[in-house]
Design a protein that fits this description.
By secondary structure, this protein is mainly β. The protein contains two helices and 24 strands. It has helices at residues 11-28, 88-115; strands at residues 57-62, 70-73, 77-78, 81-82, 125-131, 133-138, 141-146, 154-159, 165-169, 172-173, 178-185, 189-193, 196-200, 204-206, 209-212, 225-231, 241-246, 251-254, 262-263, 273-279, 302-308, 315-322, 334-339, 341-342. It has a six-stranded mixed β-sheet with strand order 2-1-13-12-8-9, with no helix packed on it. Strands 18-17-21-22-24 form a five-stranded antiparallel β-sheet, with no helix packed on it. Strands 10-11-5-14 form a four-stranded mixed β-sheet, with no helix packed on it. Helix 1 (11-28) runs antiparallel to helix 2 (88-115).
C-alpha cells in the first residue's frame, strides 16, 4: 500500500493526526536547537499527571553531533512566548515523519479493529536503556556522579495506535544511574523518570549533564562573612569591576558591588581594600551564589580587579589578590589580610569585533 493509496475509512484519523502534528509544531516554533538530523516523529503529548504538585518536564532526545542521544528540553509555549524551538531541518523532518506515522497508525488501527487482534500483535519490540549521571570536569580529569534510580519511577509509554498509551515499567533501576526497559515497541515513545519525560525513537538515552568543577561543592545556609583588607589596588575607577574565581570549583563571576552581600565596596580613587566584606550566605537578591572554600579539596580562590581600558570598550585584568588557603564553615566568619599583585600583560590577542556603536 503506497502513501497515496489510503482507504477512505481511515482518512478522518489521518486528518486528525496531522492536525495534531501541525499544532505541535506551531507550539514549538521554528527557533534554533542543537538537535541533529535524526529527529523522531512528532510526539504525542505525555499523559497529564503530576507528582507531589510538580508539573512533568518534557524533553526532546535527538542525536547531536558532539554527544549522541543527549536529552535536552523539548520546547513548550509560555506566557512570554516559546522558550526554544526545533531547527528548520528538524521541523521539516518531523512534518515528513508525521505524515508517514499518521498513515501507518491509521492503517494499523483499521486492521486491528477489523481483525480484533490485540495491539501487541505484529509489533516489533526491543530493550531500551539509559544512563542518568552528571560529569564534573577539572584540570586533573573528570569524575562521574550517578543518580541513584533504585527508588525512582522509570517507565516507557508507547502510543498503542488506538489513541492511548501502553505503559511498560522498567525491568531494572540501578544505583549507578542506569536502567533497562524490556518490551518497548519500535518507534517513538516516551521515557518517564520521576517528573521528567523524553520523547525518542532511540534505544538509548543519555540523561547526563557536564559541568566544570569538582564534585561536592557546598553552600552556606547562614551568613558567612569573609572580610578582606588588601593594599596595592590599582586606583579604582567607577567603571572597574571585581571578579571572583575558583578554578577547582568551576566558579567564575563578576561580583555585583551593589548587592547586599557585599559591604565596603571600593569607590573612585581607592588604592586599597578596607574591610571589604563578601557574604557567602544566602543573597536576598539572588545575585551572588558561590560555594564555600575548602583548602583540603584544592580550592584556590582569586579576587581580581578588572580595570577599564581606554575608550571604556572592555575591561582587562590589572590586579589579582591570590587568597591564602581557606576552609570555610557555614556560619563562621573569616578574615584575610594581604596585598594585590600587579598583573603584567604577557600576550596579545588579535580580535576583530564588528558591532554597532
Amino acid at each position: 500500500m503506497s502513501d497515496l493509496q489510503v482507504d477512505r475509512a481511515v482518512r478522518p484519523l489521518i486528518h486528525a493526526l496531522l492536525t495534531a502534528a501541525v499544532l505541535s509544531l506551531a507550539a514549538c516554533g521554528g527557533g534554533g536547537s542543537d538537535g541533529g538530523n535524526n529527529a523522531p516523529a512528532a510526539p504525542a503529548s505525555p499523559p497529564t499527571e503530576t507528582t507531589q504538585g510538580v508539573t512533568p518536564m518534557p524533553f526532546w532526545a535527538s542525536d547531536v553531533p558532539i554527544r549522541g542521544n543527549l536529552a535536552h528540553l523539548f520546547p513548550a509555549p509560555s506566557g512570554a512566548g516559546t522558550v526554544t524551538g526545533l531547527s528548520a531541518d528538524e521541523t521539516r523532518q518531523v512534518q515528513a515523519t508525521s505524515i508517514r506515522l499518521a498513515i501507518e497508525l491509521a492503517t494499523d488501527r483499521a486492521t486491528k479493529q477489523a481483525s480484533a487482534l490485540p495491539a501487541s500483535v505484529a509489533v516489533q519490540r526491543r530493550t531500551v536503556t539509559g544512563l542518568f549521571s552528571d560529569s564534573f570536569h577539572t584540570a586533573t580529569g573528570a569524575t562521574q556522579l550517578p543518580f541513584d534510580l533504585t527508588g525512582s519511577t522509570v517507565e516507557a509509554l508507547a502510543p498503542d495506535g488506538l489513541g492511548d498509551f501502553e505503559r511498560i515499567a522498567a525491568t531494572s533501576r540501578r544505583a549507578d544511574g542506569s536502567y533497562l526497559i524490556n518490551g518497548v515497541p519500535e518507534g517513538g515513545h516516551w521515557v518517564h523518570i520521576n517528573t521528567t519525560w523524553v520523547w525518542t525513537d532511540s534505544a538509548f538515552i543519555d540523561w547526563g549533564s557536564d559541568g566544570f568543577g569538582r564534585v561536592g561543592t557546598e553552600f552556606a545556609n547562614n551568613p558567612t562573612l569573609l572580610t578582606v583588607n588588601a593594599g596595592n589596588l590599582n586606583a579604582w575607577q567607577a567603571t572597574d569591576g571585581l571578579a571572583w574565581s575558583v578554578p577547582m570549583q568551576g566558579t567564575s563571576l563578576t561580583l555585583p558591588l551593589t548587592s547586599p552581600s557585599i559591604t565596603n565596596a571600593p569607590v573612585t580613587g581607592d588604592t586599597a581594600f578596607g574591610n571589604f566584606g563578601l557574604n557567602f550566605g544566602p543573597d536576598p537578591t539572588g545575585a551572588i551564589f558561590i560555594p564555600l572554600l575548602s583548602a583540603a579539596k584544592g580550592d584556590q580562590a582569586y579576587l581580581n580587579q578588572l580595570g577599564t581600558a581606554p575608550g571604556n570598550d572592555y575591561r582587562t585584568l590589572v590586579r589579582s589578590l591570590v587568597m591564602p588557603a581557606l576552609t570555610q564553615t557555614d556560619g563562621t566568619p573569616g578574615a584575610v589580610n594581604s596585598s594585590f599583585l600587579d598583573v603584567t600583560p604577557s600576550s596579545t590577542l588579535k580580535l576583530k569585533w564588528d558591532r554597532k556603536r
